Amino acid sequence: MATLSERPVSSLRQALAALARTGLLPAAGAPLEATMAGAGAALQQAVLAETPAFSASGNPQILPDLKRHAREHLDEILRLFGDGALEDFAFVRAHARLRAEQRFPLEASLHAYRCGHRVLSRWMRDAAIATRPADVEKAIAAVADFAIEYTDAISTMMTSEYVAHTRLIAEAEQDLRSETLGVLMSGYDESDVRAAQLLRRAGYLDQRQSYCVAVAQSVNAAEMENPPRAQRIVAALSEAVSRTQIRALGGVRDNLAVAVFSDRRRLSGWTAADADLAARAQAAMIEVGPAVVIGVSAAHPSTSFVPRALNEAKVALDFAGPTRRVVGFRDLPVRGLLVHRAADYVQSAPPAWIAPLIEGDAKSQGALVKTLRALADADLNLQMAARALGKHPNTLYARIARIRELTGLAPQRFADLSELLLAVDCWRL
User: Fold this and answer.
1) pLDDT for res 266
2) Element containing residue 213 per DSSP (H, E)
3) Which pTM value belongs to this model?
4) Helix-strand-coil percent breakdown of the chain, rounded to 5?
5) Which CATH number, 1.10.150, 3.30.1330, 1.10.1270, 1.10.490, labels domain 6-168?
């Protein structure tokens, strides 16, 4: 009886003792058994009439399980009237686990117990009267008390077991989602049968699907070390696409909130492709709160590209900030991608002239690099660049000569100007 709380157990035991004192145990057993079939039909009819969830369910097992469970209660009450020994209500616990696995609402099951209380109480009362007890009122009162305590006990058992099993299911599903996300993010070998089965069962091997990845973090990156905060961001990513047909699988990876988005790319090989998934996902990400920055990858045609999409989303995230919270990889300029990619290499092995140029620019209070950028913006037209800077052309000639002296490169040549600006941007990134 450890699975029931002490109060329902104690109260039900007292109600059974009261039945025994009135002489209904085991006297009422025979009339109960004789009317069991009618009670079972009345019990099922009452539940279906007052609890629409049973009839509305599309699960074909719901109604057969209801009929079976009703019979289990009748058998248990008949047994209790026979020997009066309380057991562990294992059949209630098993039914609670089944209903949790079926995602059948707990409220409907508890309402069914309340509906059943009236039928069972009437069935036991009629059986008690049939025994012709010495004190009819006392016998009826004892039956009513027993019916109340019995319903209270099974409701408590149902609630406790349903909630506990629901948590176990949720934990198992979370583990499965985490495993699926890990396989998608890390990539998998096509010879890995288990990984392929996992993705196939989750619906990620449909050739008509497209995929993209979003990564997000709080504007204050330190907040990502707080697991509840990170999980809230994951939930926000999924919530943002919940009103669309886009499917989301999210989790926390590398201290970032990560979501794999997927949707139908086309109905078949003969139909036109639907609107780009990445564009729709990026638009939906705007709804995520202002304290979060997000990078979104390009759309890809299969799960084999998901690791690549993850890298794309991380690159896009590097360009995001408070003034531009959501950045799509496909919107990044080529120059920005080149600088992002090459920055580490330039900083670890810089050209010999970069340090003198940066030092000379600092001494000129940034005039040298400003001149380079003005030349680029003016398509190498020195007169236009001078006007843009508000300087005399001779001033720019002097700066160009200084840059040539420091670097050995000619800023008025396109190739050299590109080299200078790319190196400066990589150095300062």
Assistant:
1) 57
2) strand 209-218
3) 0.59
4) 65, 10, 25
5) 1.10.490
